[in-house]
Amino acid sequence: MHTASTALLDALTTAGVSYVFANFGSDHPAILEAFAAAAAEGRAVPELITCPAEMVALSAAQGFAQVTGRAQAVLVHVECGTQSLGGAVHNVARGRVPVLIFAGASPYTQDGELPGSRNEHIHWLQDVPDQRGLVRGYVKYENEVRTGRNIGQLVHRAIQIAQSDPHGPVYLVAPREVLEQEVPPAPIAPAEWTAVAPQALPPDEVRALVDALAAARRPLVVTSYLGRNRDAPAALVRLCHRLGVGVLESAPGHVNFPTDDPLYLGNQWNQQHQNAVLAAADVVLVIDSDIPWIPTVSRPARDAVIYHIDVDPLKQQTPLWHIPARRTYRADAATALDQLDQHVAGARIDEIAVAARKAHYAELHEQRRAALVARERPAGDAITPEYLTACVRRHVDASTIVLNEGITSYHTICDHLGLSRPGGMLTSGGSSLGWHGGAAIGVKLARPGHTVMCLTGDGSYLFSQPSVVHWMARRYQTPFLQVIYNNGGWKAPKLSLLSLHPDGRAAKARDLGVGFEPAPDHAGIAAAAGGAYARTVVHAGELESALDAAIEAVRRDRRCAVLDVKLPPL
Ligand SMILES: Cc1ncc(C[n+]2csc(CCOP(=O)(O)OP(=O)(O)O)c2C)c(N)n1
Ligand SMILES: [Mg+2]
């Protein structure tokens, strides 16, 4: 039998989908039949990954796409499965990650008019007025499959949109009757559905931009996610060295620039003070950033000239957004940087000025580096986030991918890991906590030969649904390391409070409601659910050996490892 569900699996396969991260329900009998038929007939279809929680499923698809650029499929149950995707929808939207979410929809016949007609109580409960509205504010495209005859076209259209810049999630729904429908095969030519080609700068603007950077005393690039395009960091290095331009990261979600390069000047997150490098810049080129600075805290000088290149410069999904840019360009960062670099190569540049700018920035770089080294010394027996990150750094090699969900330690992790290889670090790209667990599974499926390390807050660890994550990690053999930066609860909301009410009642309160007392056995959860190597680390003196053992468990024994590292309490 060739049903719409057979056609769905064929379309996913021809669109390059390797995995279906699935959480099944009454909407999926035809899809389960189609998987079983493919297995019996030896036809290639994507591998099915059973996901006991939808948020983990979507985070896994996110992680896979973050390292490959390829959308995977997440299959969920009607409206309640869609709701259960929860904040992972926010993360893929804000992080601009391509993924196809496919949900069933309640049957639309109740008297047996068509195969698939209602036969269970829940078919009335799950028939809601606007299922697609649940995610409409977050996806680039959503549609209902109305006939199995063109389900292949809709899948290819959805994935083409997801994988075209700016990337993002897409959502399709199909009712049971449609998924059961017998349809003739309708072959698709995948070459007709490729992503839209990357966009370049208008050629006559290239010179003006280069002239502005070359004439500046303190030219500065500010970026957050240009490293999502793995060719862009090298292009940025070339341009910055030719012109003597410094680089500052703002809430980096990727490795955007080698942190050991003398033109690298640090990263700014929620530090509540003006960034000195940003204040001193007279020409600022913002490339790929959602929040290049927080104006109430840190901003460029009023007379600085700002240019903006972004894959998504208008941020239309953000109702309030503005930076005072003189010119704004929608372009792919690697393409634009190559254009600028080629122009510089043929232009007359004041090499003395370039050398002076480079020397200035190299001095700042060196001062910063020395300050970081000083902060890594352990404070007696206590384990500081700086010391912990420095110890983790010893185990980071050329094939390590770090998933950073360190929250109030984001900044420390970026500073003290000091990564330089494009693709070496990822964040959720959004703010909905718990991404790293599912994402680690997706990253490991995509890059089985790499070491995956998650550095996470204790709150974010619990948000990640560790029991589900570790059951999946063992079942699908995706070993990774989790290091929990355990400060005993949620430090971030406490810091938010203190930034607005430093001397208020709450600042003096004994219990703010942000602590995790009595302390859970975080690592034990992972051991129980997935047989992970589990260890709690309290003293600075035991940290190095604990890390050695955990890394060995992951790399040699192919087991997950969870180190619950107790930091000074919040
Ligand atoms: C899904 C979700 N719920 C709540 C929040 C609000 N929130 C932001 S940071 C934070 C605390 C995170 O705790 P932890 O991971 O331990 O990091 P810490 O703040 O202690 O560094 C919370 C609850 C959020 N961002 N996402
Ligand atoms: Mg915490």
Structural description of this entry:
- There is one protein chain.
- 39% of the residues lie in helices and 16% in strands.
- By secondary structure, the protein is an alpha/beta fold.
- The mean pLDDT is 97.
- The protein contains 22 helices and 18 strands.
- The termini are far apart.
- A six-stranded parallel β-sheet has the order 2-1-3-4-6-5, sandwiched between helices. Strands 9-8-7-10-11-12 form a six-stranded parallel β-sheet. Strands 14-13-15-16-18-17 form a six-stranded parallel β-sheet, with helices on both faces.
- Bound molecules: thiamine diphosphate and magnesium ion.
- The site of magnesium ion has 7 residues, from helix 17.
Q: How would you sum up this structure in a few lines?
A:
With 570 residues, the chain is of the alpha/beta class.
Question: What are the defining features of this structure?
Answer:
570 residues; 18 strands; 16% strand; single chain; alpha/beta; binds magnesium ion; binds thiamine diphosphate; globular; 6-stranded parallel β-sheet
